[in-house]
Design goal:
Elements: H1 2-19, H2 22-34, E1 46-51, H3 60-74, E2 79-84, E3 93-99, H4 108-134, H5 144-153, E4 163-168, E5 174-175, E6 180-181, H6 190-199, E7 211-216, H7 232-248, E8 253-257, H8 263-272
Helix pairs in contact: 1-2, 3-4, 6-7
Length: 276
């Protein structure tokens, strides 16, 4: 009789929870406390991280990895692929990948230990994978648009359909042979740049469909070698260029940040798809 009463109580309260009333919220919390109802995990997500020096460095990379890996740990079966920006699209390479552990029926203590182990091992592996590049001279060119296209077209190994692309970069696209120098050269109008990309099948329409894109590290700062002065006006124009380009490629959402993303920044992207 007591078991039947418990089942009936749980059923009634679970129904109330589905209605999302104030009483339901308290009831739901009570059910979780006594173990009658468990909160489902957030859905898995597939994350790609493009590391483009100098914005991606020994300080900003861990600042970015920590909240991203924390989010992956909350979402069993999520993946993170780490890419290193090269001087051409063939040199942009996948250097590391990690997958958050699937949820199991182990005790809270065992699961917490497993999560801590995942966070430590993944953080270590992802940082070690880019260490050789951190000690190398900076690239003289940075074909960011081409790299984004390569990443977007590389199928994820995760079962998740939800994709997030984080570009840790100063956002200064440089391809000298195409006379594209966003550090010191003349900046194109968005329509002209987009038309040129599409002519070469770079970031074509729908190539970023369903992908949330976050560019982080696009602060106003000196140009490598002091070749020119980087101004606020140029930074603003570059931001407009990227937003127009990513939107034309069908990005689900676009966020553009001057520094490494905070946990709050990532929460907005993962929870609601950022902003455009």
């Amino acid at each position: 009789m007591r078991a039947l009463a418990t089942i009936i109580l749980a059923s009634l309260l679970a129904t109330a929870v589905a209605c999302e009333s104030p009483i339901a919220k308290k009831a739901g919390a009570g059910l979780e406390t006594i173990g009658l109802v468990t909160t489902p995990d957030p859905p898995a997500v597939s994350v790609d991280l493009l590391c483009d020096r100098p914005a991606c460095n020994r300080v900003t990379l861990p600042q970015t990895l920590d909240p991203v890996l924390g989010e992956l740990a909350r979402r069993p079966g999520s993946s993170l692929r780490e890419w290193l920006q090269g001087e051409d699209v063939t040199a942009t390479t996948l250097v590391a990948e990690c997958v958050s552990p699937a949820k199991d029926e182990a005790s809270d203590t065992v699961r917490a230990a497993g999560t801590a182990r995942f966070l430590h091992d993944a953080r270590t592996a992802l940082q070690q994978a880019v260490q050789p590049a951190m000690n190398a001279p900076l690239n003289t060119v940075s074909p960011i648009a081409e790299s984004i296209t390569k990443i977007a077209l590389t199928p994820s190994t995760s079962a998740s359909d939800r994709r997030v692309l984080i570009i840790l970069s100063d956002a200064r696209h440089v391809v000298i042979k195409k006379h594209q120098d966003w550090e010191c050269g003349t900046l194109p109008e968005p329509e002209t740049f987009i038309k040129g990309l599409h002519a070469e099948a770079i970031l074509p329409p729908a190539s970023l469909r369903g992908i949330d894109v976050l560019i982080a590290g696009a602060a106003v700062g000196p140009v490598d070698g002091g070749r020119c002065t980087f101004t606020l006006e140029r930074a603003s124009r570059i931001e407009r260029l990227w937003i127009a380009t990513l939107r034309a490629a069908g990005a689900r959402s676009i966020a553009y940040l001057p520094g490494a993303p905070t946990r709050a920044d990532l929460d907005r992207v993962f929870a609601s798809g950022g902003s455009q």
